[in-house]
Amino acid sequence: MKVTLFIPCFIDACFPKAGASVVQILERLGHTIDYPQELTCCGQPAFNSGYWEETRPVAAKVLARLKDAEVVVIVSGSCGAMIKNFYPELFKDTPQEADALRLSAKCYEFSDFLVTKLGVTDLGAQFPHRVTFHDGCHGRRELGLKAQPRALMAAVRGLQLVEMEEAETCCGFGGTFSAKFPMISSAMGEGKVASALETEAEYIVSNDSSCLMHIQGLIDRQGKPLKTIHLAEVLNNR
Fold first, then answer.
1. Which of 78, 170, 175, 192 is the most buried (most CB within 10 A)?
2. Residue 61 lies in a domain
3. What confidence tens digit (pLDDT) does each residue in 34-53 have?
4. Nearest Cα to 177, choosing from 186, 165, 164?
């Protein structure tokens, strides 16, 4: 099928390897990729801060470009939740409401697309490391993602998944939350790092580069022997 990718701001600007990994994986599976480079932000920062009127012009550009796509794959639980769950709310009682609902029905976060839509779990990947998984808030609570990334990791040769006690606890990033409440955000992130360290994992894996950026910053500041990596990069390691 023709897969239209939405690459979030954080991945485009800071973690392009995650986006490239998604492209390479989907092309190996035989799909055609459409990547609309003119799209940037989905509007989530303004939306989460309560500026819905200011969000709509940003989101309207995304909606207009994606509404006719066959299927949309989003490389982030947070941006995925914004487009799939919150665009219908944002555009409710507007002329774009029907388009937002149709787009929502064909939007998938990357791991969900592989497992739920394609029925694929084994990508022939190898990653001989001990890892633990961070469930980002939007992916877990808004999109219901839990089994999908774990099913994919279970098929990776050499990967040993050790669940941390605080796997579903917020890392403290929360987008604008970390800028408004840096001390609380850092304290929450330190709790996540401590929980991951208890597993003796080498890597923290997640679907959200924004969470991983926050966590890696705290790890580096503490000088801890732990690294973060996006799930797509693990699945693309051959």
1. 78
2. yes
3. 999 888 899 998 998 899 99
4. 186
Report yes or no on 204 lying in a domain.
yes
CATH code, 220: 3.40.50
pLDDT at position 135 over 90: yes
> Residue range 48-67: average pLDDT?
94
Task: Give whole-number Cα distances, 221 to 83, 145, 184, 215, 217, in Å.
Answer: 33, 30, 16, 10, 6
Residues 156 and 28: their CA atoms lie apart, in Å, by 16
In contact, 231 and 125? CB cutoff 8 Å: no
Give per-residue pLDDT as tens, 217-234: 999 999 998 999 999 999
* Structural domain of 21: 2-117
Single-letter code of the amino acid located at 94: T
- Taking the CA of residue 198 as centre, how many other CA atoms within 13 Å lie in the half-sphere pointing to its CB? 11
Q: Give start and end residues of each alpha helix (H) in 107-146.
A: 110-112, 137
Residue 64 backbone phi and psi in degrees, to 5: -65, -35
Q: In this structure, what token pair is assigned to residue 161?
A: 């998944």
